[in-house]
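Lecture notes, unit on protein representations.

Consider one protein chain, 91 amino acids long.
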Amino acid sequence: MLALVQLNRNRATRPDKRPQLTDPRESGDLENTADSVPGLYRDEMDHPGSDDNKRLAELSVLKKRQLGEEVGTMRRLVWVGESYKDFASHP
């Protein structure tokens, strides 16, 4: 099952706006019971005037209990046409 949650509004007061595991805290017990919690961050949403990060997103592993990427792993994604692709594999 995949559940999407809105992040805590306290995120806006932090200097680094990237998602943290504590952000979905108001979504019930979801952050405690989830096997995996990825975080998606788009810098252009917080800094709309900057052209440096247009079409880029960061996907980070905030929590994992099973196989997969380690906590703290981050992938840079780039928007290509209709979807995001791993930045490392994009020419």
